[in-house]
Amino acid sequence: MNPSFPNIERKFCLSKQGLSLSDGFAVEGYASLFGIGDHGGDIVQKGAFQHSLQAAIRANRKIKMLWQHDPAQPIGIWDELREDAHGLYAKGRLLEPILRAREAAALIAAGALDGLSVGYTTKQAGFDAAGARLLNKLELWEISLVTFPMLPGARVNAKADEPAEENQVSELCALFRQAARNLKSTDQINVSDRGII
In this structure, is the dihedral angle defined by the CA atoms of residues 169, 124, 69 and 160, taken in order, positive or negative? Predict the structure, then answer.
């Protein structure tokens, strides 16, 4: 956890279209997709980012473009962020004078960097009948260009022969969530303040 941004959660997104680069430094892609469960059992709901995007506009504040979720390494500007039927669409530009931005552009062009990941805090969430966490309202802090997803299966050309490891991670996450809910229901610990559920 980054001490500057307590309780920030991150979600890696790799859409079929991927991250694209045009004119050398313009980037675009989906930072989050709606209605699709991740390996941790979370599902971002349509409209989850809307309040945060509107608040940023009212405050004349830009959502940060970071390198690998590092708040010490801003590498560009997000010029357009919007929700559509698929998810949170992001379009921006890498800032050419910044060395890391030039490196990111080269990595995207070569196909070595192809993902976006959101950094957010959960404002409102619930659970479906299967125990998946439904993320209904999120405060968006940043969108990062990332090399690797947080889980082995969330990347381009993930090996099909690794489903057992992915299933084990999903099952372990589900067990932790259930244990946290059980503890919360017995009032033994306040887990919601720690970002566990």
Answer: positive
